[in-house]
Write a structure and sequence with these properties.
- It is a single chain.
- Helix content is 42%, strand content 17%.
- The chain has 371 residues and is α+β, with helices and mostly antiparallel strands.
Length: 371
């Protein structure tokens, strides 16, 4: 594409993202939501279910759980080392790129988590064999692993609730989460967890799948923003830039309020025609609308209020959205949605409409009030 890049405003981009993420035009199915969002963070299962329900024309309770049970999606440690529910193709692409960073081979990882690269390799081989035909609870998996010669010393690390030494195995496609057993976490292989598991592609092929998927929900964006979303900036910058360049005419450089970034070429007309959408949205904790671009995007989250959104312990607050921007947070107190605006309070009628939509998604009657 020759000439000056397409110039867009943040307001146009937010309007486009709201539609693409099924927040102004709801989806026909939960599976469509998971696919379009390139995964739904599922560290908190109820937050993931709410994120999907808010985007569906006919919200259904436990829609993600049903997809998992039907083996249409899988739950695994993926982007940023957090649990996500993804479709098989996008899970394979994301894991392949996470694995390509080889973060577990860096000295700082060994110091923090107490396992060398050689030990992770041995652990991966053992777990692959153990889970090839089984779904095991954490306790059962640990018992099977530490019974293997040379792996007994990893007992404590394996039992950690954070799963630090298991995450590299997830990124290599060796394990993922299985169906819960009486509230207990289980692990199995991706091939057992989901129908049509493709295996991990080569990183270059994975990038050609995942970068357009990301930009199709959270674009336009810079390569560094994609890397932050995926790996917390663990990818080699030269490789990252090459992946974007190799997409060729599928991507086009654009400017958003003067900031250079990339959009999918197929989205340019819709981006240019996007108009700000009136009204208010109430999105739950860890919503992808915020996680996709990240809380450091000051056009989305005002810098002065970032700590209200991104809280200690990695907690992402439920947020109020107006004009595509985060303009406040909210908390649930019984049947009340207690809204804390960053500035001027949203119009009462718009807030009531947002509360009604949230009520439909949550399956219970809720009312909004200012805190």
């Amino acid at each position: 594409m020759s000439g000056a890049p397409l110039r867009l405003t943040a307001a146009q981009v937010f309007a486009w993202r709201l539609r693409r993420q099924f927040l102004t035009e709801p989806a026909g199915s939960a599976l469509a939501v998971v696919r379009r969002l390139a995964g739904v963070q599922a560290q908190v299962a109820s937050a993931a279910e709410l994120a999907v329900a808010l985007r569906c024309a006919e919200p259904a309770a436990d829609a993600l759980a049903e997809l998992l049970g039907a083996r249409k999606v899988l739950r695994t440690w993926a982007m940023r080392g957090t649990l996500h529910v993804l479709t098989p193709e996008l899970a394979a692409a994301a894991l392949a790129l996470m694995a390509s960073a080889r973060t577990w081979e860096k000295p700082v990882w060994t110091r923090n988590f107490g396992a060398t690269p050689e030990q992770i390799t041995a652990l991966g081989a053992a777990v692959a064999e153990i889970l090839a035909a089984a779904t095991l609870s954490r306790e059962e998996l640990v018992a099977a692993v530490i019974a293997r010669p040379g792996l007994g010393h990893l007992d404590e690390q394996l039992r950690s609730g954070w799963g630090a030494v298991l995450k590299p195995l997830a990124w290599q496609g060796i394990l993922c989460h299985g169906a819960a057993q009486g509230g207990r976490v289980t692990f199995t292989s991706p091939a057992r967890a989901v129908t049509g598991w493709p295996g991990l592609p080569e990183p270059d092929a994975a990038a050609a799948t995942l970068i357009p998927a990301y930009l199709g929900a959270y674009g336009p964006a810079a390569p560094e923003t994609f890397d932050t979303w995926l790996s917390r900036n663990a990818l080699r910058k030269t490789v990252l830039r090459r992946w974007f360049a190799e997409l060729g005419n599928a991507l086009t450089p654009v400017e958003v309020d003067g900031r250079g970034c990339f959009a999918r070429t197929e989205d340019l007309d819709e981006l240019a025609a996007a108009k700000p959408v009136p009204g208010v949205l109430l999105l739950g904790s860890f919503d992808q609308y915020v996680l996709g671009p990240g809380t450091t995007d000051t056009a989305l989250v005002p810098a002065a209020h970032r700590t209200a959104v991104s809280r200690p312990g990695g907690w992402i607050s439920p947020v109020v959205i107006e004009g595509g921007r985060v303009t406040g947070t909210w908390e649930r107190e019984g049947d009340d949605i207690v809204v804390t605006p960053f500035g001027k309070a949203p119009p009462a009628r718009a807030l009531d409409a947002a509360a009604a939509r949230l009520s439909s998604a949550a399956g219970t009657k809720l009312r909004a009030r200012l805190g």
